[in-house]
């Protein structure tokens, strides 16, 4: 894993490389990396239950539901976040395999 420089402004490409090889997740805010704290068991259970609920609710309607490790890119911003759970109808491509830019 590459070391994180706290005073460096990163490019989105550098961010993706660091996230791919790292053990700690970060959100990306205009070149700055913000470390994400670990979640409790209770938090994980809530997310898992919400995921199941959404999968049942949107089954057969063309939505994909993602949890925890998939990033969302904020439209027209250089920002990526890790929401707990989100849904999307965005087609999967090679370019967006690590993030969604069209969450619903």
Describe the protein's architecture and organization.
The protein is of the alpha+beta class and 104 residues long. The chain contains 2 helices and 7 strands, in the order αββαβββββ. The chain has helices at residues 12-21, 41-57; strands spanning 26-29, 32-35, 64-67, 71-73, 79-81, 85-88, 99-100. Strands 2-1-5-4-7 form a 5-stranded mixed beta sheet, covered by helices on one side. It is globular, with a radius of gyration of 15 Å.
What is the number of helical segments per DSSP (H or I, 4+ residues)? 2
- Please give the alpha-carbon distance between the first and last residues: 33 Å
Largest sheet: 5 strands, mixed
Shape: globular
- Average pLDDT for all residues: 91
**C-alpha Rg, in Å?**
15 Å
Structural class: alpha+beta
Low-confidence stretches: none
SSE string: HEEHEEEEE
Helix content: 25-40%
Q: How many β strands by DSSP?
A: 7
Beta-strand proportion: 15-25%
Can you list the strand order of the major beta sheet?
2-1-5-4-7
Please, what is the oligomeric state?
A: single chain
